[in-house]
Design goal:
The protein has one domain. The protein contains three helices and no strands. The mean pLDDT is about 90.
Length: about 90
């Protein structure tokens, strides 16, 4: 996929020295930066997922929460619905 963007002159002036120092074109430096940012975001999301799982396990170990079957029974009774049977 090809995408064309316009980079403001002020930004080009700021990143041109960095591109030159790294032996890259401005375009390649921007591509590398975006790619690195995507990886960083993915790592943060993964870390947040792991932290959520850890919180859940800690909560269970602390005796919080209820078994799934109990939850399903309570929701069925409260809302007058039946949970879909597993195949």
């Amino acid at each position: 996929m090809r995408l064309e963007i316009t980079i403001p002159d002020e930004l080009v002036e700021q990143i041109a020295p960095l591109a030159k120092a790294s032996g890259k074109t401005i375009e390649q430096l921007i591509i590398d930066t975006v790619s690195s940012h995507q990886q960083f975001v993915a790592e943060i999301e993964s870390a947040e997922t792991v932290a959520g799982i850890k919180r859940g396990l800690e909560s269970k170990q602390a005796g919080c929460g209820i078994p799934l079957e109990q939850f399903k029974q309570e929701m069925e009774a409260k809302h007058g619905i039946r949970a879909k049977e597993e195949v």
